[in-house]
Structures are given as C-alpha cells and as structure tokens.
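User: Assemble these into one structure.

Assistant: Restating your components, then the assembled model:
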Amino acid sequence: MAVSISLIVNGEEHRVEIEPWWSLAHVLREELQLTGTKIMCNNGACGSCTVLMDGQAVSSCVKLAVLAEGKNITTIEGLAELETGELHPIQEAFIKYSGMQCGTCTPGMILTAKALLDENPTPTEDEVRGALAGNLCRCGTYKRITKCILAAADMMKGGR
Amino acid sequence: MAEEFSVIGKNLPRKDAREKVTGEVKFVADIQLPRMLHVQFLRSPYAHAKITKIDTSRAEMLPGVKCVLTHKNTPKVHPLDKFEFLLDETVHVAGEEVAAVAAETEEIAKEALKLIDVEYEVLPAVFDAEEAIKPDAPVVHVEHGSNLYFGLEKRTDKSYGPKEVRAPRTRADGYLPLEVGDVDKGFAEADAIIEGRYESPMQACVSPMPRAVICQWNGNNLNCWADSQVPQWINKDLARCLGLPQSSVRVMNTTSTVGGYGAKTPEKVAIINALIAKKTGRPVKAVYTREEEFVATHHRPSYVGYEKIGVKKDGTITAMHHRMIGNFGRDFFSATEIMSASAAATAGTLYMYQNLKFEGCVAITNIPDTGPMNGLGDPEAGFIVERAVDEAAEAIGMDPVEFRLKNCARYGSRSVSRRDVLGLSHDELELRPDWVNWGIVGPDFDSLPECIKIARDKSGWKKWKGWKTPVEVNGTKRKGIGIAIGMHMSCFRLYSAIIKMNWDGTANVLSSAAEIGQGIRTAMAQVVAETLGIGYEDVEILLGDSAATPEGWGCIASGGTSSAIPAAWHAAKEIKRKLFDIAAPRLGVTPGELEAKNRMIYVKYKPEKCISIAEACLRGYQVTGAAVNPSPDSIIDEKTGKVMNTYACVATIAEVEVDTETGKLDVLKLSSAHDCGRAINPQMVENQIDMGLVQANGYGRSEEMIFDKDSGVMLNPDLLDYKLMTILDMPKMDDMQDSFVEYPSAWGAFGSKGFSETGATSGAPAIANAVYNAIGVRIRGEHITPDAILEALGK
C-alpha cells in the first residue's frame, strides 16, 4: 500500500508516493533521479550510499524512506553551491589530490567527511580513519582519500 | 633530467574528477529510459542438475509481466568463450540462470520468479580441483567429456564459440608444460631442497556497483548501454549471437565504468536483455544484486601449488619445479591466459635459474566462474612461489632480501612471454607447437633489483633479526617483517585511436580503451597534449562507443598505458607531421626545422617565426590522425640480438604485528616499490599501486568465498560476510611507503608502461612471510586469518 510522504532533499521539498518498505537510497535514486547516491552492498556494510540526515551520516540503503520524512537530507548533489557551481572544499580537495578512482564510493566518502569536519574541523589522521571505517573503497584509494580530507580541513580553516 | 615536459609527469586533475565528486557521473545503473522494463533472473539452487520440467504459465499471467525466457524459448547460442548455452537445460553451478523475467517493475519481476515451477534432476557435482581431475570424478560439462581443459577456441577459427581445440603444447594429462634445462640434475647439485604444497585462494572481483545493462532497439539496430570494461567485445558478441552486423550494434559506456578489476567482461545479460527488448518492443534494464555479482560473474581462480626449489649454499637457485592446479569453476574467461601468464611471468621470468619445470592444469568444477582479476595469473602463482622462495632462502640461512637481490631477474636474464608458453605466434592465430621462443627481459628490468633496494631502505630492513625472529616482542604481540617480489605482463594488445583536430587547435581523441577508474582519459590526454604541444584542457577523450571509437580491447591486461596510450601517441605524432607540413611552407622552412609547444608551431632556434596550431588546423581544413598500437609483445634487443619481452615488476616489504593470544594480525607498514616506466600522472600512479596493495591484503588475509561442502552453494555472498579491507586494515599514510622507479620502457609513450596490475602480486606473500618471522610457523594455506595463525601456533 503506497504512502505519500514529504522529503526535504538538498533544501527542496518533494512529495513522493512510495511503498513503505522502500529504502531512502531507492527513493532518492529511482523516484527523485538523484543517482549521485550509489548503492554498492545494499545491506549497510559499505557506506557508498551515505547521505546526511540532519547533519548525521547515515547509510541510506538501510534507512526506510518513511523514517526520513521531515528530516533535512543532503545528498552529494547538494554539496556544491547551486547558483555559482562553486564546489565544497572537500570536493575541491578530492579533485586536487586525486581522491578517487572508479568513483563509486566517492559520494559516500565526501559526505562522511563532511559530517566529520562539521563536528570536528581539525581531525587527526586517526580520527579521519575512524570516521571512514565504514566506507569501503574497492579501488583501494584510502591513502589519498585520507590526504584529501586532511587537506580539506586545512582549506576550511579560512572559514569556508 | 634531460627531457623537459610540459604536461606529462604532472598531477593534473582527472578528466572525470568533477563529475565524480558532484554525483553527476552516470554509470549504466544510473540511467533510466522511458517505458523501461526490469529484468530479474531465476537461479538454480543446485550446483549440477538437469531441468526436467519448467512451467512459466503462472508467472506469465501475473499483471505487469511482459516476457519470460527459459531454455525452451531462447536461441541455442553460446555466450563468448562459454561451454553452456545462454539459458541451458542443464545447470552447472548454484546460481546459474534458469529463467529471466521482464516486468514493469523490479518488484513484479521478483514476484513472478516465485511463480515459475521447476523440477530438477540433481546430478553429481564436484567442487575441489584436485578431486575434479581424478578419472572417476563427475564430469561438469558432459559434452566436453573431461574436467581438464586447455582450449584455444576463439583464437584458432575466430568463431568465438566454445569449439574445442587443445592448446598445442598441452600434455596428454592436461598439463601445460614449460621446461628448460634438467631439473633432476639441478636438484642433484643443490645443497638444500625445499618442498611444499601451497594454496592461493579464490578472490571475488567485487565490483563496487553491481553490473547493469540496458538494451533498446531502434528498428533493426540495437543500442546497448553496458557497464563493461570491454564494450567492443560486447559489440562483437551481441552481433554474433543475434546474427547482426557489428555496425548495427552500438555498445556504449562513454563516461565511466564502475571498477571491474577484470570481471566486467562480455555479458550474457546483454544478450538476454536484447532478446527481451526485441520481443517486447521496450527498453530493458537489468541490474545485478550484490549476491548475483558473487555467484553469477567471474572471479580469480584458486590454485594449489606443489613447489620444489633447489639452492646452493651461496644462494644460487639450481632448479625450480612448480606444479599448479587451478580451480577454474563451471566456466571461465581467459583460462589459458591466466595459467600461461603464471607460467611465463612468475614461474618463467621472475628469477634467474638454469633448470626449470612448470606444469599448469586448468580444472573445471561446479563452483562459480573464474577469469581475469587484477594481476591475472601472477597473484595466484606469486602467493605460492614467493612463500616457497622464502623457505628456500631460509634453508641456506640467507637474508631473504639478499636472496632475492641475488636471484631476481634483470636485464639479459631468461624470459618467456605468455604467447610463447602457449605456442602461439604474435597474432595469436598461427600455432607453433614445437618450440618455445625463449628470450630475455630488457634493460628496463634492471628496475627489479632497484625496487628491492628501495623497498629495503624504506622499510627499515636493518631491523631484521634473522629467520623466525620477531623484530619486537611486546607481551603476547610480536612484530615481524617479510619480503616478496612480483611481476606482471605489461601487455601489448591491439588498441587503436583516431584523433580529430578542431579549428581552434583542440583535439578530440576516439580511443578503443575504457575508463574504469584507472584514469586512462586523464593519462591519454596528458600524452596527446604533450605530443602536440597543446594544453591538457585542449584534449578530450571519447571512449566506449562501439559506433564511434575504433576497434580494440577496452580495459584489460594493463593495456591502457602499454597499448591504448601508444596508439593515441602515434596518432598524435601523425597529426604533428601533418601540421608541420602545413606550417612549413608558410614559414618558409622545412618540416624538420619546426617544433610545437604552447599551442604554437615554431621554427627551432628562431621562435619568433611561428603560427598557431589553431591556424594550421584551419588551413588544413580537416586534420585527423589514426594509429594502431604498433608494438608487438616482443622486440629484438639491439645490444644482445635476443628477443626481449616486456614486463613490469614490484618489490614489497611488510611489517606486521601478530597477537599470539588471539591470532589478530595487523599490517603496520607496507613499503612497496614499483616500476612504471614513466609516471604520466604520479598521483594516479600511487592510487593504482594502492589498489593492488589493498586488494592483495584482502587476498591474503580476509577475502574468502565460502561454499557449502555438500551443495556448493556460496554461503557468504554479501559484503558483511565477504570481508574487504577497510581503511583501518591498512597502514596509516606514512606507513604506506609507495615508491616508483622510472626505467623507461622500449615500448610505451615517453617510456611509460602498463604497471597497474603488478601491485596485486607481492602484497599477500610479503605479509605471509612477515607473519612467519613474527610467529615462527609457516602458513601455506589460502589465508593468513586469525584462525589460521592460532592453528599454526597449535592453539
């Protein structure tokens, strides 16, 4: 039995008709066409589908969409400035220091990093590693991803 | 530094970086078309069974179901290289496709699967390779008649079907041999001999996003979006199976492929989708689940290796005998390539020896398919050989780094190519069964001792305290260090490129490569820009559109840097010649007096005389260049007159900490030095090295495909229970000491070579050898897990 819910995604409100058992990742991808959220394991084991819900990093493949009603959801599409196209410093750092290969885990890595830096703007390497412990990268790019997040933290010290 | 480069050697941002950090990148799974149907597969619960009855009528009546395919209404065609038909009456592995359902939604299609009634006659099955090659074992493919395989089907008659032709050099017992000297004599001369049975595990490719295919007909033409590393092969396979000319089948994957690591090769799914799309007149999409990615794609085969190595007291290897049996599963892709690569590289080239015997056997069993995975054949063989070589060094009490420095291959040492092992000529069509064309490794292979020395110095090898002696003991925790070396073909294949110059002096490159995360679009643009004297931002690369890009091999066998980039490089050189021909009369000089840089064509030594590249392009009206990678696998070394093979190499030293109470293993530091010929983009080189190391860690430590011993059903087809390495399983940044040496290759653009797969070869044995020095017991099995460590310690 379909239900109608309202989702606030990247600052915009959407009303969607969904089945109550659909995951947030499924609704974002299939109903809202926000395919920047990638599904790798589909059981909460890999962090690829990470989105921010009221600022917290959550695995959207194991989060029921109905439970996201009324929350502020940020997906990778919502990170850059919409009007100017200006990228978030974490995105800039990922480009500059090549923090990606095939790119599947990248949105989840970046959003996990955002949740970390919002809470802890000057993390140590160990704190970055701890935050990324649930994000798998099959291309093995962990070292440069760590480098990117620490570089982004540095870039953001200027108040960006 | 003699040469000055403007574009290569620089950490320029990846061409696909922005689309990947903003979520704009569209993988095939992300594409939706109007009126698209969704496909789901019914899969066999049995490892070997005959379908005696199949009734789909209830499924077909479910509202929303548009098409159901079974073996009864599907053409009897073999997907590329496969024994079984598209949908077969007999299933040979738990998870084999029994039926395909297309419906309005994924959920309806899943519901319909439950309404298909199937009766099976269960047949005897075999899962273990050594059991499978015994004469009384159940035969997996009855029509093949044996579980032994060495076929060269598609090479010999280009039919691309599973036509059986035995590899010309295969022995009657099913082993592929490679022999030099006299191993019996060699062992007689040895002061010490080690012997052992070692295992290397099956490893799942685990593409991050499960594969996706979309097919849509446009009249009699087929459009297929395939998340594949070889779109051109899918083009040919679809054309063959559907009876269409290649020109009517457009296979596209123009942005990026999700990492495949070898597994994203020809797709049975694409053929099934195309058939359904034809029957229904609708676009059809199939996206695999994570479980299907485990049970219905291909993975690295497991090997059992029987090793015997003879050494003299001074460290000289007198003889090596490797006998390897690979469990290649129900069906496979490139089995001959994998086993012959093991023979040619790790067994036949990595060490200097006088007497060698290699025997390799491909066994067919009822477990999921195997095929190329990152390193193709060399991680499989390397995990075996490098543990045995370590034991040989210990047998004469020699430091393992010194032992490898003394014995490792270098310029002039004996080498053989994969094709030589198989008895194939360079175009792979002509057989030459009677001889092996032994050659040497070229001057660039002096990088191997150099890699060992760099790894030694970066690892702090001085702390080594001798065999099976921890470098540090802290309560129940013991630290150990260990080394392994490795190599992989830097393969030369048919790749091609077309470059089109625009009137503003920018270039569009159409290449037969595929972007799979390795960064080929970036590296190729750097090489083309450098060659033409234009900017990196002036070059765009189009890949993966079979209607637009030229013929070639996609993304396989480290072919990007070794073959696809050279093709683009030669095409760019052709364009440069044409532009100089246009510019020379205008500048009143000969073409030989010109050079191109900063988007201008100058007269050498008189740079004020110049015209812009844009103007030359405009004057030329249409300036294009096209090239096929011209380099064969082997070329003649001018100095020695011998046939020279091309390979890339690596040395890795691991430092580990083992808790002898719990068996917990931490890899504290990895010092890995690679030969990449020349680093076109150093950050991307480092990423590719790390990919190998992370995957090698999982290979040796945690990635275990577990099958039920009685039913052959995979028990852990998900990422909670199939354990990939996380960031916490890898050393911290400063303890991932990635180095690369640049010994220019005689083949590639600006001396570069394909090196990306060598990283996967030496990581696992280096860790195993380090664990030995920490705990004093050798682990010769498939994984160095806490359980295996405790068992080795007798706990």
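Helices of chain A lie at 24-31, 89-96, 106-119, 125-131, 142-156.
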